[in-house]
Amino acid sequence: MTGRLRVVAAMSGGVDSAVAAARAVEAGHDVTGVHLALSRNPASYRSGARGCCTIEDSNDARRAADVIGIPFYVWDMSAEFHDDVVVDFMDEYAAGRTPNPCLRCNEKIKFAAVLDRALALGFDAVATGHYAQLRTGADGLVELHRAGDTAKDQSYVLGVLDQSQLAHSLFPLGDSEKPAVRREAAERGLLVADKPDSTDICFVADGDNTGWLAEKLGDRAPNHGGDIVDDATGEVLGRHTGTYGYTIGQRKGLRIGRPAPDGKPRFVLDIEPVSGTVRVGPRAGLRVDALRADRPRWCGAAPSPGAPMACTVQLRAHGAEHRAELRVDDDGEGTQTVHVDLLDPAEGIAPGQAVVVYDGTRVVGSATIAATVRATATATSATAAAGAAR
Amino acid sequence: MSETSPLPAAPRRAYLDHAATTPMRVEAREALVAHLDLVGNPSSLHAAGREARRVVEESRETVADALGCRPGEVVLTAGGTESDNLALKGLFWSRRAADPRRVRVLVSAVEHHAVLDTAVWLAEHEGATLELLPVDARGRLDVAALEATLVADPTSVALVSVMWANNETGVLQPVEAVVAAAHAHGVPVHTDAIQAVGSVPVDVAASGVDLLTATAHKVGGPHGAGVLVARRGLDLTPLLHGGGQERDLRSGTVGVPAVAGLAAAFESAVKEQVDHATRVSHLRDTLVEGVRAVVPDVVLNGGDAEKLPGIANLRFPECEGDSLLMLLDAQGVEVSTGSACSAGVPQASHVLLAMGQSEEEARSSLRFSLGHTSTEADVAALVAAIGPVVERARTATRRVRR
Fold it and tell me: According to the model, what pLDDT value does residue A212 have?
């Protein structure tokens, strides 16, 4: 998009979105700051200085808008956020999967509910403080690329955006490095210049995922006790009080009384939501050589079904890049399944996480991991578990 | 690009939010500024102190004249919220201390949060039993319901609080009937008259209320200055302890310049009340008719109930009130959704909900409030802007719903 645009700057109260809003103004756009209220009762989510749901964050965003000199409003997105992000988060854990609520929020809230409302109210675009770059491709489509600062790159959590969303997005920080953004915030007189980055899930207080899930899931399955089982021998090693407390690849907090016979640490290899069984074993059992994913979302043109495509994939936020070969199957009724063979094996990948597909720095799209496969392993229990959870 | 082109920017601001706060009157500013350099503390015994005290007492007499009470009944406070807190807590504590059976607090369901939240606090922390008195669909208190609950057990009632006029809808409450009902059982009555003073005749003595709240900044006075009129002989437990400056009911050095500004504002507002009411009610009617001509399905909240002259609360079906507010703001027209904000999160108005509206209906309303600086041009600016704004807000509602 070019020219002077009417822009909604989504302002979390953090330094990145504040500088992004200021840069959008400097680029000549007509900018309105909007803080998203994601909880009707801000105190009911996390409290403290970080995050995106506190009254302090709302005030920080307001003060940043004052300093930048733009109008500022709070938009109540609490109902949408609860229905599309928080409930999904609980459902996914209840099904034994490991969701990423930030992707979900980008897909359903920031670049959907907020963008729709902004467009309807006469705005042209939504600007955020994400570290990612937009370019116009040879085909005229808007391409999403990794940020210039690869350490801060957030293209992974934006991999769920389709062309209609990207065409109305602005990421003014895409070519910047974080320290420079902080310096710029200080130079602009923004009081949030030194505010710590938010790292935890914004609606979970103190980063206590397990405690939060225990409270919210209550008696819902699989919040019942279950066995912790040795994946190789089937021997019951212990009990747990809810599978949501476990993630594939987890080593700490297994509460198994005795060590493995070889003295090496055990890891969670698999979670069976129906039986509530958590399977543990050696690190080698975490190796993933291939995966299957569904619900793909393509940023631009979708890959041709059936044709193998060389690409790289990222399997978690700030995770490594893996060389891979991708194949999309289309059942003819519009449902696509994505098969990924990893040339560089991964470790500890959980169903529910997103696989984001790259062609160089360009994001091709993303899909939700349904099952993982170990080429060399005898047990393919992760596949079985994911199948059972569907 | 969106298919809708940007709305043209408006050159001037039209301030239609006088119920939130009013521009300062010239005479209030002059009185305030004139006393900024006065040195004395009104509690000091020397000449400077006496001079400051004289200003405070003359101001108190002016306020008493304006409100129809005795100077000794005027307690100077930091504003309406403090006055409401002192009224409810002070009366609850003293009445219950005198008779431990008195725990029921009867307040209308459409009170301002300064009263409502104070009553809720008394219930949650001080053992009060809170009863919210219902209103009809027009937002007017159901006096029969009040009488019924009083009669059921009069000895257990600590107090009744019903506002003179509602701050969101402008609907006038039957204060005289409330006083008659409560006094028949010896129960004292507080009324929050913040919106009423200067807009309708307010005479404390004639009304018979025991406690009345008013504040300066709603009638062209400074922020941070209010009064609680407390009938002589009424026992109140203080909130703020210290020097006992205000009849031992309220401690803290009296802010002389603000009090001088408050008195000047009350004096002018009450003196001009009749002309003001005639003028702004005409503007208000022009506003409602003008908006209705452009948006035929607009609904006047409160219907044909008797209202303050300067407030029109309108419901725009299929619109989000906060979308309308933002779009009007961008056009230079400043209005309110009339609802309380916590961290700026728009909540559906408890007043409109109490009138039987659904959450969706309540969220689609805007409050327009006129005051002493309002002009035909302000109303014209709104009427010119409202059509496209409503159209766009409706588009937004439909899109988000899909």
Answer: 84
Identify the CA nearest to A260 among candidates A276, A279, A291, A282.
Answer: A282
Cβ(A211)–Cβ(A259) under 8 Å? no
Indicate whether B375 and B278 sit together in one domain.
Answer: yes
Residue B5's Cβ-count burial label (10 Å; 0-12, 13-18, 19+) is exposed
Instruction: Return phi, psi of residue B309, to 5°.
Output: -70, -25
Contacts of B343 in chain A (CB under 8 A): 37, 42, 55, 58-59, 74
Residues B98, B103, B106, B107, Cα dihedral to 10°: 90
Domain end among B271, B286, B303 = B271
Region A256-271 average pLDDT: 83
The predicted structure's pLDDT at residue A94: 84
Phi-psi domain of A253 (left: phi exceeds 0; alpha: psi -120 through 50; beta: other): left
Q: Examine the domain organization and report whether B240 and B305 are in the same domain.
A: no
Q: Is the pLDDT of residue B400 over 70?
A: no
Residue of A5, A74, A76, A121 to mutate for B, most B C-beta atoms under 10 A: A121
Strands B226-230 and B211-215: antiparallel
pLDDT of residue A353: 93
C-alpha span between A47 and A51 (Å, rounded): 8
On whether the pTM is more than 0.90, the answer is: no
For the stretch B297-350, pLDDT in tens is 999 999 999 999 999 999 999 999 999 999 999 999 999 997 655 555 677 899
Contact by Cβ (8 Å): A40, A78: yes
Do A71 and B330 count as a contact with CB atoms less than 8 A apart? yes
Comparing CA positions, the residue from A37, A115, A34, A110 lying closest to residue A70 is A34
Residue written as token pair 């998203």: A36
Q: Give a yes or no: residue B4 inside a domain.
A: no
Of B393, B226, B365, give the one whose Cα is nearest residue B299: B365
Does the pLDDT value for residue B291 go beyond 70?
A: yes
Task: Report, as an integer, the average pLDDT of A326-335.
Answer: 91
CB-side exposure of A355: number of CA atoms within 13 Å? 33
Nearest-by-Cβ selection for A124 from B2, B326, B341? B2
Is some CB atom of chain B closer than 8 A to the CB atom of A82?
no
Supply the range of the domain harboring residue B55.
Answer: 26-271
Number of separate helices (H) and strands (E) present in chain B: 13, 14
The residue with greater pLDDT, A51 or B69, is B69
Out of A37, A113, A122, whose CB is closest to B343? A37
Q: Does residue B161 contact residue B108 with C-beta atoms inside 8 Å?
A: yes
Kindly report, residue by residue over A374-388, the tens digit of the pLDDT: 765 444 444 444 333
Q: Which domains does chain A have, with CATH numbers?
A: 6-207 (3.40.50.620), 221-281 (2.30.30.280), 285-389 (2.40.30.10)
Q: Band of the pLDDT at A193, cuts 50, 70, 90?
A: confident
- B307/B163 Cα distance (integer angstroms): 13
Q: What is the amino acid identity at position A47?
A: S
Torsion, CA A285, CA A287, CA A290, CA A291, rounded to 10: 70
The string of pLDDT tens digits covering residues B155-165 is: 999 999 999 99
Rounded CA-CA distance A58/B174 in Å is 40
Contact B332, B15 (CB under 8 A): no
- How many beta carbons lie within 10 A of that of residue A275, not counting itself? 15
Residues B105 and B221 in one domain: yes
| Diameter of chain A measured on Cα atoms | 67
DSSP 3-state of A56 = helix
Sign of CA dihedral A231, A232, A234, A239: negative
